[in-house]
């Protein structure tokens, strides 16, 4: 797998984006991106939760998207608020469901909803962006 390039955003909210292959291994690259961004912004206390959120978003995109790549982003949308997101080229919207006892699938979105301050999906002409936010407390 070629090494992805981390690039900062030139305009808008500070953020980092990587285009990654739609493969399970991309979750590790996404977690690295979270660590880079949150260390840069002095928000390392949010790293574990943000990495978990982004890993779940990547896992969903790997499972359900249509093309060979996804875009993962970490943005600082306010001084104490970060947003992690995954853009993919599928128009299928995420559907939260309740997993059964023996079902490993369907746990990601309920976990995201419980952990994130806010989450959602933004439709695009070419697909969608699924995002989750975390806020500092205190």
Which features does this protein show?
138 residues, alpha+beta, Heat Shock Protein 90
Kindly describe this structure.
By secondary structure, the chain is of the alpha+beta class. The chain has helices at 26-40, 47-64, 108-115, and strands at 7-8, 15-21, 69-78, 81-88, 118-124, 127-135. A six-stranded antiparallel beta sheet has the order 1-2-3-4-6-5, with helices on one face. α1 packs antiparallel against α2 and α2 packs antiparallel against α3. It is globular. The termini are far apart. The mean pLDDT is 85.
* Unreliable stretches: none
Task: Specify the number of helices.
Answer: 3
Spatial order of the strands forming the largest sheet: 1-2-3-4-6-5
The CATH homologous superfamily is called Histidine kinase-like ATPase, C-terminal domain
User: What is the chain-wise order of helices and strands?
Assistant: EEHHEEHEE
Write the layout of secondary structure elements.
Elements: E1 7-8, E2 15-21, H1 26-40, H2 47-64, E3 69-78, E4 81-88, H3 108-115, E5 118-124, E6 127-135
Antiparallel strand pairs: 1-2, 2-3, 3-4, 4-6, 5-6
Helix pairs in contact: 1-2, 2-3
């Amino acid at each position: 797998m070629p090494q992805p390039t981390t690039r900062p955003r030139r305009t808008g909210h500070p953020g980092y984006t990587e285009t990654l292959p739609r493969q399970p291994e991309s979750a590790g690259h996404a977690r690295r991106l979270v660590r880079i961004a949150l260390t840069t912004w002095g928000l390392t206390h949010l790293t574990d939760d943000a990495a978990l959120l982004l890993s779940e978003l990547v896992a969903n995109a790997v499972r359900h998207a249509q093309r060979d790549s996804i875009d993962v982003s970490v943005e600082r949308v306010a001084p104490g608020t970060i947003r992690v997101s995954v853009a993919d080229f599928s128009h299928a919207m995420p559907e939260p469901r309740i997993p059964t006892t023996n079902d490993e699938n369907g746990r990601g979105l309920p976990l995201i909803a419980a952990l994130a301050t806010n989450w959602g999906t933004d439709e695009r002409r070419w697909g969608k962006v699924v995002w989750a936010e975390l806020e500092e407390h205190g």
